[in-house]
């Protein structure tokens, strides 16, 4: 069928009601958001957004309501979609934006693609990777992997991806989203090493929309975390307080979930795997810890300093 592209959509969307189909690749995926309120009677008040791209650039795509339980788990980073009968709306100004792996990619920020169950009823097709043709010009998923030896020099709030061997994972903890609120964030601390430094990555992992992965993080698993944010220098001794926290677009993968993920082609991922092959599993197991309370950043060792 006749296709359009994101760049053409941005130029012509105001003058059209119906749009030609789109062929795009998912580059980023947000966590699933529940926006239900007791006074509003909605069947499926869910929303998730994705950053999708074709040869012309990248745009946000929003999945609404009952389409979320139907499609959210099938729409992975790297998945190619054929979209028909979608709507175009002006962008929501307050949403978070992931940092693209390809800094040269053009971003269309004024509008977003809206996928609804009606008005109009969107038609979504997933194209299997083996059927994707090079002449479609779809961009590859790119990452920003860092090693532990590079972390201390990165600025606060820098976005990056990491891979490491888990040496510690703490128990799940809860923090109130807002003071006096009934809603909580669920998170856990983890340490991961990659052989480039004596120090581990310290990771604050909030529960994303991947409960099956979040609950199964344990020592000796290969952990990949994407779209993490650097948190620098919370105390006078900055070298001890740098850690990484998840963002709205973070994805977490552990051993058993890596097969077929786009990051397996990344050079830093390959060099980590080579390093792991040179390690003795028995030696690493001796250094691992699980559970317990993990206060971070650590309080001073005396009350006078406190």
From TrEMBL:
Which InterPro entries did the record assign? NA-bd_OB-fold, RADX
Tell me any Pfam family this protein matches. RADX
GO molecular function, a single term: single-stranded DNA binding
Q: Where does the chain cross the membrane?
A: none
Which PANTHER family does the record match to this protein?
A: RPA-RELATED PROTEIN RADX
Any idea what this protein is called?
Answer: RADX protein
Give the organism's phylogenetic lineage.
Eukaryota, Metazoa, Chordata, Craniata, Vertebrata
């Amino acid at each position: 069928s006749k296709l359009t592209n994101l760049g053409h959509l941005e130029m012509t969307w105001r003058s059209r009601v119906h749009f030609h189909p789109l062929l795009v690749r998912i580059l980023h995926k947000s966590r699933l958001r529940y926006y239900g309120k007791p006074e509003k009677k909605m069947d499926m008040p869910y929303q998730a957004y994705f950053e999708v791209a074709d040869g012309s650039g990248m745009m946000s795509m929003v999945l609404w309501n009952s389409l979320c339980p139907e499609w959210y788990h099938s729409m992975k980073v790297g998945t190619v979609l054929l979209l028909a009968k979608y709507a175009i709306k002006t962008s929501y100004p307050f949403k978070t934006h992931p940092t693209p792996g390809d800094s040269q990619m053009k971003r269309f920020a004024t509008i977003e693609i809206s996928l609804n169950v009606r008005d109009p009823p969107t038609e979504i097709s997933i194209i299997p990777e083996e059927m994707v043709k090079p002449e479609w010009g779809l961009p590859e998923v790119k990452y920003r992997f860092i090693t532990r030896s590079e972390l201390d020099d990165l600025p606060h709030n820098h976005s990056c991806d990491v891979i490491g061997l888990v040496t510690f994972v703490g128990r799940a903890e809860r923090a109130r989203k807002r003071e006096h609120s009934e809603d909580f964030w669920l998170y856990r601390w983890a340490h991961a090493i990659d052989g480039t430094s004596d120090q581990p990555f310290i990771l604050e992992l909030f529960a994303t929309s991947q409960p099956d992965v979040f609950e199964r993080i344990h020592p000796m698993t290969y952990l990949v975390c994407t779209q993490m944010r650097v948190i620098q220098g919370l105390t006078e001794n900055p070298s001890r307080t740098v850690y990484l926290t998840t963002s709205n677009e973070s994805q977490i993968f552990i051993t058993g979930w890596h097969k077929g993920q786009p990051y397996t082609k990344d050079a830093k991922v390959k060099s980590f795997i080579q390093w792991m092959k040179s390690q003795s599993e028995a030696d690493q197991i001796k250094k691992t810890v699980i559970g317990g309370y993990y206060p971070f950043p650590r309080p001073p060792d005396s009350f006078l300093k406190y």
